[in-house]
Design brief:
With 214 residues, the chain is of the alpha/beta class. It contains 7 helices and 5 strands, in the order βααβαβαβααβα.
């Protein structure tokens, strides 16, 4: 069985635009991808609302991805694939280029977790495989969102995600997928996926994962 860790933010957690409730397993792209992949794969959902890559959020605790990653990797050992889709919440504080640098840091952390944490059981006993998913674009009206809005340039910066994340993935030998080509954010909050978007990403992710293990 292949064990996969999905590390992300609210669109990985399954945030429902307008209500803040969590989509069911029938909807969330992580769970839907697991269903498409079948019983030969164990898909571990590790998303949290508001998560950044490496940046502190002074208004919301426990959101810094680099603070959580080692714990999740060690807790869910052994693993075969690390999937990361982060960056949207970085745009509260930095631009897309610096967000991509944050993803670069997290990939390096995943690759070196055994050396740094001195674990007797390797996190990736068969060697690490990685998949970088560039987040969906942010709608142009997101700056008017009253709940933890991004910077006024959030929409424009989100259009640059793939430009900066693709070479990061290539530098790490990771697979790459651009969710911005697959789905649009809801008009309700300009940031979160609708069920149709979750379904589209699930199909593409399942296909990409099969390619990785072939």
């Amino acid at each position: 069985m292949k064990r996969i860790l999905f590390f992300g933010d609210s669109n990985t957690w399954g945030y429902t635009p307008g209500t803040g409730e969590r989509y069911s397993e029938d909807v969330r792209w992580t769970a839907a991808a697991a269903k498409l992949l079948g019983p030969e794969y164990c898909c571990i959902e590790c998303g949290i609302n508001g998560r950044t890559t490496v940046y502190d959020d002074p208004w919301r605790g426990c959101r810094k991805g680099s603070d959580a990653l080692d714990y999740e990797l060690v807790a869910h050992t052994p693993l075969d694939l690390f999937v990361i889709m982060l960056g949207t919440n970085d745009l509260k504080f930095v631009d897309a280029y610096r967000s991509a640098k944050g993803v670069d840091t997290l990939l390096t952390m995943a690759e070196t977790v055994d050396q740094r944490r001195f674990t007797l059981s390797p996190a990736f006993p068969c060697g690490i495989k990685e998949l970088v998913i560039s987040p969906i674009h942010i709608g142009a009206g997101e700056e008017h969102n009253d709940e933890y809005p991004l910077m006024p340039t959030g929409h424009e910066e989100s259009l640059k995600f793939a430009r900066y994340l693709r070479p990061v993935a290539e530098a790490h030998g990771a697979a790459f997928l651009d969710a911005g080509e697959l789905a649009e954010p809801s008009d309700i909050d300009c940031e979160h996926l609708l069920p149709s978007g979750h379904a589209a990403i699930a199909r593409a992710v399942a296909e990409k994962i099969r390619e990785i293990f072939e």
